[in-house]
Amino acid sequence: MMLQPTVMNRALSSGPVVWVGIIITTCLLLVLFQTALWLVMPLLISIVAYYILSPLVKIGISQGLTRSRAVMIVTILMSVVLALAGFGIAPKCVAVTHNLPALIEDYVRTGNALVANANDSLSKKFPFLFRTVVKPPPESIGTVSGNITAEAPAGSTDDATSREVSDFTNKHSSDIALELAHWIPSLLLVPYITYFFLLDGPRFKRFLVQAIPNAFFEKTLYLFYRVEDQIRRYFQGLLALTALDAACLGVGLWALGLNDPFLLAGIAAVMAWLPYLGSIGGGLLVTLVAAHDFPHNHPWLPYEVVGLFILVRLMDDFIFMPLTVGRSLQMHPLITVLMILLGGAVAGISGLLLVMPVLGVVMVAGQIIGELATDARILARHRHALALRKRRARMDLFTK
Question: Would the pTM of this model clear 0.85, i.e. be above it?
Answer without folding.
Answer: no
